[in-house]
Specification:
8 strands; alpha+beta; rod-shaped; 9 helices; 15% strand; eight-stranded mixed beta sheet
């Protein structure tokens, strides 16, 4: 699994609070979907432009979920946010896709930034997308870069009126969407763990040079996962410590459960990081042992041929006064001697358990 990476645009030179999208355009035009619901009914529709959307961004007893897909149109994002009295610095953070996951409490709204993990365009790729939330009154606005998210089960539950989702207010709904993001972390981590197991099995059964590259990719991915997931603990903890007027005591019970899930994901990431380091050590040990085996064989072969080379060298000298050279069976005697030395050394090495 490799992470799809895009180099962000530089924001230098712009004044603080400037609406400037730092990512890459991934949509032809911004898409805006709206879900309104309460315990008795719900409605779902798309808004072609901001002008059509704004009448729905008013205080109501219904929970209103506005999902904005596509951040490249700074003007559209700015119009939506300014209508909700969102501070310009918050708008800047929404458009700056390199934000660290965080929670900011403002007078009229909550601003939450998380990293949504999704499968990439191929089975071995990982896409990390920034997801921003604005929670004000009973309105939750989500901002994402492109089509595709982890919220389809939530939409289904709203349509079918399953569970508590249509019986609760927007604070509970904010918990629900965060829980969906964290739950998908487990799915991504499960795939990550399977990749680690495949590499480990490959190292044990038939290590290849390509495994080293895979291990380095896994280590880099573990760092990216940690960067995306680790701040969630602080974020969820802050969410649970908000005033009861913002986050009800009943919802905080669920928040505590979500906090436990974030701790579990963090622990899993740390385990995977240590496992990746262990795989690198395993690869180096296997490579070292393999080299030692090769050197051992070469050393044994060299040790066997040292006395044989000595004998051959002695009788290869061109002195006239060498009586053995005149023996009728001298060649066979020396050849037999060399064979005996060879056998003797093999037996010696086996006795020493070097073979």
């Amino acid at each position: 699994m490799t992470k799809t990476k895009h180099k962000p645009k530089l924001k230098s030179g712009h004044a603080p609070g400037t609406a400037f999208f730092t990512g890459h355009k991934k949509m032809d035009q911004v898409e805006i979907s709206v879900l309104k619901f309460n315990e008795e009914e719900f409605s779902e529709f798309n808004c072609p432009d901001v002008k059509t959307l704004l009448p729905h961004l008013t205080k109501t007893d219904n929970v209103v979920w506005v999902n904005v897909i596509g951040l490249h149109d700074e003007k559209t994002i700015e119009e939506i946010c300014l209508h909700l009295k969102v501070h310009k610095l918050t708008i800047e953070d929404i458009l700056n896709v390199g934000q660290r996951p965080k929670l900011e409490e403002h007078k009229d709204y909550l601003h939450i930034v998380v990293k949504m993990l999704m499968g990439g365009t191929t089975p071995d790729t990982l896409d990390i997308e920034q997801l921003s939330f604005i929670l004000t009154d009973n309105i939750l606005v989500t901002f994402q870069e492109k089509i595709g998210d982890v919220f389809d089960p939530i939409r289904k539950r709203i349509r079918e009126a399953k569970g508590l989702i249509r019986k609760k207010k927007s604070d509970y709904f904010q918990y629900i969407v965060l829980d969906a993001v964290v739950d998908y972390y487990f799915f991504i981590l499960e795939q990550f763990g399977e990749n680690l197991e495949d590499i480990e099995n490959s190292l044990i059964n038939n290590p290849q040079k390509s495994d080293l590259n895979k291990i380095h990719i896994i280590k880099r991915e573990a760092i990216e996962l940690r960067r995306a997931i680790y701040p969630m603990r602080e974020l969820v903890n802050s969410l649970g410590n908000l005033d009861d007027k913002i986050m009800s005591a009943e919802t905080k019970v669920y928040i505590r459960d979500l906090y436990d899930h974030t701790i579990q994901t963090i622990e899993t990431v740390e385990i995977f990081r240590e496992t990746a380091v262990g795989l690198l050590d395993l690869y180096m040990n296997i490579a070292s042992n393999k080299m030692n085996e090769i050197m051992k064989v070469l050393t044994i072969v060299s040790s066997i041929f040292i006395p044989l080379t000595f004998v051959a060298g002695v009788y290869g000298m061109n002195f006239h006064n060498m009586p053995e050279l005149r023996l009728k069976y001298g060649y066979y005697m020396i050849l037999g001697l060399m064979i005996m030395v060879f056998i003797g050394m093999i037996m010696f090495f086996k006795r020493k358990r070097w073979l």
